[in-house]
From TrEMBL:
Pfam families: EF-hand_5 (PF13202), EF-hand_6 (PF13405)
PROSITE patterns: EF_HAND_1 (PS00018), EF_HAND_2 (PS50222)
Start and end residues of each EF-hand domain: 20-55
Record's keyword terms, sorted: Calcium
Protein known as: EF-hand domain-containing protein
Residue spans crossing the bilayer: none
């Protein structure tokens, strides 16, 4: 059996991304909540990855829901699960958030 994904490793203090990148991503995904219901749908998360100029927004959206949608309701709650979504995005694009948002 072949595994294509590495197991997630614990981040250490030195591996933490800059707070500015984290805050920019939180603002980005909150802006993607176009109907202001406090939840991010599949299309809204995919729009966020498109704004980040992802080459594979559909794949990234699928993985984001696997990581962040803990109650499996088909939405990422802005209050509870947004942190996990932003953490996933920071793992995907380490150190390139500001370049992607230009």
């Amino acid at each position: 059996m072949v595994f294509f994904f590495n197991k997630r490793t614990e981040t250490t203090h030195k591996d933490l991304p800059p707070k500015e990148d984290y805050d920019e991503l939180v603002k980005l995904f909150k802006r993607c909540d176009v109907n202001n219901d406090g939840r991010l749908s599949w299309e809204e998360v995919k729009a966020g990855f498109r704004r980040l100029h992802s080459r594979f927004p559909l794949y990234r959206t699928h993985r984001a829901f696997q990581m962040a949608d803990q109650n499996h309701d088909g939405y990422i709650n802005v209050g509870d699960e947004l942190d996990k979504l932003v953490t996933y995005v920071l793992e995907c694009y380490p150190g390139t958030i500001k370049l992607r948002l230009i």
